[in-house]
Design goal:
It is built from ten helices and no strands. By secondary structure, the protein is mainly alpha-helical. It has two domains: about 1-55, Arc Repressor Mutant, subunit A (Orthogonal Bundle); about 60-200, Tetracycline Repressor, domain 2 (Orthogonal Bundle). Helix 1 crosses helix 2 and helix 5 runs antiparallel to helix 10.
């Protein structure tokens, strides 16, 4: 039987994962090193390895936690609600996720760009099941003439692409917009208009 972690152990574990998130989101999995993570965490390398046996274990822990965070906004899409309202609320939740969790977004993007070697099972499992389930709801709304007929999975892909862009390409977005702009507020208003027109039956 595994003993529950003490408060100090829990705190150290969270400190390590926070440092690992910073390093992985900056350098990617391949570019990150245990020494870098230890340095950001302010802990020794042996101390790191006491909590997580490898760089892979830290990365996997972050990805497992991240997938739940990433899927939660889509889980909230409610068939009983008004279709346009539900979809626009999903877009808003995804923009807020990009604003509030930019490092997590970059971590996820890096994993996908590498071919998802550590997330393939989760993508083919939980993620695909949820997208399939919500695609059925979208198709039903289309059949009822409540929103325009579009390929439902591609509608979801476009929402991902247009919202996560603001986290994954943050420095580019801010450089192009220049000072005095709130990219996430502007993006929210723009995407609301874009999808409202796209979804009109």
């Amino acid at each position: 039987m595994t003993r529950p972690r003490t408060r100090i152990q829990q705190k150290n574990s969270e400190t390590i994962l926070e440092a690992a998130l910073e390093v992985f989101s900056t350098y990617g999995f391949r570019g990150a090193t245990l020494d870098q993570i230890a340095d950001v965490a302010g802990l020794s390398k042996p101390n790191l390895l006491y909590y997580f046996p490898s760089k892979e274990a830290m990365h996997q822990a972050l990805l497992t936690r991240l997938l739940d965070t990433w899927l939660d906004p889509l889980r909230e899409l409610d068939e009983a609600g008004d279709p346009v309202t539900e979809i626009l609320a999903y877009v808003r939740r995804k923009i807020e996720l990009s604003r509030d969790y930019p490092r997590e977004s970059r971590l996820f993007a890096n994993e996908i760009l590498q071919g998802a070697p550590r997330m393939q099972a989760a993508i083919e499992g939980d993620l695909k099941r949820l997208v399939d389930e919500k695609s059925v709801i979208l198709s039903r709304w289309m059949d009822q003439g409540r929103i325009a007929r579009l390929p439902p999975q591609h509608l979801i892909f476009s929402i991902w692409a247009l919202t996560q862009h603001y986290a994954d390409f943050d420095s580019q977005v801010r450089a192009v917009l220049g000072p005095g702009h709130d990219p996430f507020a502007e993006a929210g208003d723009y995407l609301d208009t874009l999808f409202r027109k796209l979804l009109a039956p």
